[in-house]
Amino acid sequence: MKIMVGIKRVVDYAVKIRVKGDKTGVVTENVKMSMNPFCEIALEEALRLRESGLASEVVAVSVGPSKCLDTLRTALAMGADRGIHVHSTSSLFPLSVAKILTHLVLFEKPSLLFLGKQAIDDDCNQTGQIIAGLLNWPQATFASKVLLHKDKQVVTVDREVDDGIETLSLNLPAVITTDLRLNQPRYATLPNIMKAKSKPVNKFTLEEFNLQIKSDLEILQVTEPPKRKPGVLVASVDDLIHKLKHDANVI
């Protein structure tokens, strides 16, 4: 059984984001980039299924500029068997990415597609759902536990909802998006980093796919959030209640 995992290259979560002077986006030049944390979780879950003998191959896929190869190499060092890079220099939003990944799914024919529930750069939380719609596959989002049955025909997914835990049973093939509490991703060891250099990465361009990709969104302006107001000390609960009722600057 083959598992495909979507990987996105984003600004590292520990980097303080800076808005460009012309407010067209955020500064990415000379900024540390890394794999989206939710994608790491998705990859880790796929690797665990392969190591348990329930999957035979894990394929990591990334869409974007040439530097995405570095992120793919990290995925290969973590344990993915091979990578696929779809080169694109333009800004791609969820619908466009979903169309590209759908094309790859139809070509590769995986039984499971794992994605992070969202990327920390745009927080869209849309790509997995759109792919499931385009493929007409069952989907489970915000997965906190994944159990693949030994017959490899059904997967059971626990997902966190407002009321607690919801359990879904999906027939394969299916799309699963992963949440934080699903697992703890492994670190790539030095020997595996060296081995990753010899693992295959297939490269494609959008022109080869013959897909009509166009932006369905337009970014008008990017601005920093307003600075947080300093806290206010109160002497008693009564003072706190009074300020909450009558002082608009406290809220």
From TrEMBL:
Q: What CDD domains has UniProt attached to this entry?
A: ETF_beta
Keyword field: Electron transport, Mitochondrion, Transport
GO cellular component entries: mitochondrial matrix
Q: Which GO terms describe its molecular function?
A: electron transfer activity
Main subcellular localization, coarse class? Answer: mitochondrion
Provide the protein's localization. Answer: Mitochondrion matrix
Q: What single Pfam family name could you report for this chain, choosing any that match?
A: ETF
Domain Electron transfer flavoprotein alpha/beta-subunit N-terminal as annotated: residue spans: 23-213
- Which GO terms fall under biological process for this protein? amino acid catabolic process; fatty acid beta-oxidation using acyl-CoA dehydrogenase
For whether the record's keyword set contains DNA repair, the answer is: no
Protein family (similarity comment): Belongs to the ETF beta-subunit/FixA family.
Function as written in the Swiss-Prot or TrEMBL entry: The electron transfer flavoprotein serves as a specific electron acceptor for several dehydrogenases, including five acyl-CoA dehydrogenases, glutaryl-CoA and sarcosine dehydrogenase. It transfers the electrons to the main mitochondrial respiratory chain via ETF-ubiquinone oxidoreductase (ETF dehydrogenase).
Complexes and interactors: Heterodimer of an alpha and a beta subunit.
Protein name, per record: Electron transfer flavoprotein subunit beta
User: Which species does the entry assign this protein to?
Assistant: Psophocarpus tetragonolobus
Q: What is the lineage of its organism?
A: Eukaryota, Viridiplantae, Streptophyta, Embryophyta, Tracheophyta
